Amino acid sequence: MDDVRGSGKELGASVESNEVETLEKGGVVDITSGAAEERPDGVEEKNTTEGEVKTSAAVQPGPPSRSSKWKKRILSFLDDQWFLICMAFAIVLASQKQVPESRQKVKSTVISYLCVSIIFFATGCTLDTRVLVRNYSRWKAHLWVQGQCFLMCSALMFGVVSATATNKDFMDPGLLVGLMVLSCVPTTMASNVVMTGQAKGNQELTVVQTTIGNFISAFVTPALVVMYISVPTWYNAVLPSHGNDQWTEIYRRVLKQLGLSIYIPLVVGQVVRYFFQPACNTFFRTWKMGKISSVCMLIIIWSTYDQAFASKAFGTVPSSNLVFLVFILLAMWAVYFSISFLASLIWFSKKDVIAITYCVAAKGPAAGVPLSATIFAGISLELESKIQVPIVIYQALQVAFGSLLIVVFRRWIEKEEQMRLEHSVLDTEAGRNERTTVMSNETA
C-alpha cells in the first residue's frame, strides 16, 4: 500500500510538473489520459462520445483579402450615402424627361400633399410621446434654436442678397427671391434626425426642435417672407403686388396646406402609435420602413427639378448665376453651422450642441417647396421654379457636408465618453483603496 501511495504521489508530481512546464511554454494541458499533453494555442478540443476518437483541429481564419475589404467599404459607403446618390439620380432623371407642362400644377399639388403627409405620418408613428413631452419643457432651448433658425438665418441672408443685388445685371431676380424664401423656411426633419443619431448627439432634442419648427412655420415663414419681399427693391418687383386682403388669403392657403399635410398626419400618427405601438416599431424599425420618409423626400426633390426643367427655368438663368448660387449657399451653410456651434458651446452640453447645430443650419424642402408655391400662388411656373431652385440645391449641400461632419462629431463625443469612463474607474479604485486603508487601520 505504501508503494502504491508513493507511486501515486510520484505520478501526481510528474503530472503537476508537466503542467507547469507546458503552461510556461504557452500550451494547453490535457490530463484526461493521466499524462500531460502539450497542444498549441488555437486548437479546439471536440468532446466525443464513448468509442469515438478525440480529435482537435486548429481553425484560424485567414486575414481578409483586399477585395473583401474594398467590398465592405463600398457597401458601407452606399448604406451611408444612398440618399445623396438617389438624389443625384433623381435630378438626372428630371433633366432627361419631364411631365408635360399642362399637368405640372396637378403633379405638384398631388405630391406636395401626398408625400408631405406620408413624411409627417411616419414621423408621428415613430416619435415617443413621453420623449416629446420631456423635451418640450426646455423652453430656453426652443427659443435659442428657433430664433437662430428663423431670425438669424433670414437676417444674414438678407444682408448677402442686398449686397449681391447692387449689380442689377448679374443675378436673376427670381433666384434672389428664392434665397430669401430659403432663409425663412423651417429646418428639415428626416436628415436631421438621422445625422444627429449617427453623430451621437441628442436625437430627442432634434426631434422636438424639428417638430416645433415645422409647426410654427405656418405663421412665422409667411410673416418673414412678406416682410422681406415688401422692401422696395428691383428684384422684388418681379412679384405681383399684394394688398392686405391678399395676405389674408396667403395665410388661409398656408394654413390649409400645412394643416392637411403636416398637422393632421402628425396627430394621426401619434394616435396610431398609442394604440398600435408594437406594430409601429416592427414596421418602421425592424422592417426598416422608416426610409419611406426619405423616398417621399426624393420624390419632392424630383418634382421640383422636373418643374424647373419643364418650365426652362435653368435655360433662362446664366450658368454664372448657378455657379455663384452654389458657392453662396455653401458659404451660408458654413456660416449658419459655425455660428450655431460656437455660440451653443457656452450654454449647452456637447450632445445638445450637435443637435442644435444640425437643426439651425438645415432647411427643409418638405415644407419649403409647398410653402413657396402656396405663398406665391398665381405666378408663372418659370418664376416659381426659380424661387424653389435654391431650396433644393441647399438640400443637397446640407446633406453632403453634414454627413462628412458625422465622423468628426462622433469622435468628439467618444473622446469625452472615454475620458469620463477613465475618471470613473480611477474614482472607483481610489474609493476601494480608501476603504481598504480604513479597514486596515480599524483592524490594527
Short précis:
With 444 residues, this protein is mainly α. The protein has helices spanning 2-24, 66-80, 82-96, 104-126, 129-136, 139-164, 173-184, 190-198, 203-229, 244-275, 277-286, 292-310, 319-344, 350-361, 365-375, 381-443; strands at residues 28-29, 38-39, 43-45, 56-58. A two-stranded antiparallel sheet has the order 1-2.
Number of domains: 1
Q: What sort of overall outline do the alpha carbons produce when their principal axes are compared?
A: globular
Average residue-wise pLDDT: 80
CATH class: Mainly Alpha
Question: What about the largest sheet?
Answer: 2 strands, antiparallel
The separation of the N and C termini measures: 50 Å
Report the strand count: 4
Uncertain stretches of 5 or more adjacent residues: 1-58
Question: In which order are the strands of the major sheet placed?
Answer: 1-2
Biased composition (Basic and acidic residues): 36-53
Protein name: Solute carrier RCH1
InterPro entries: Na+/solute_symporter_sf (IPR038770), Put_Na-Bile_cotransptr (IPR016833)
Keywords: Membrane, Transmembrane, Transmembrane helix
Description:
Keywords: Membrane, Transmembrane, Transmembrane helix. Residues 1-68 are annotated as: Disordered. It is a single chain. This protein starts with a helix and ends with a helix. Residues 1-58 have low confidence and may be disordered. The chain has a single domain (103-416), classed as Na+/H+ antiporter like fold. It has helices at 2-24, 66-80, 82-96, 104-126, 129-136, 139-164, 173-184, 190-198, 203-229, 244-275, 277-286, 292-310, 319-344, 350-361, 365-375, 381-443; strands at 28-29, 38-39, 43-45, 56-58. The chain has a two-stranded antiparallel ribbon. It has a two-stranded antiparallel ribbon with strand order 3-4. With 444 residues, the protein is mostly helical.
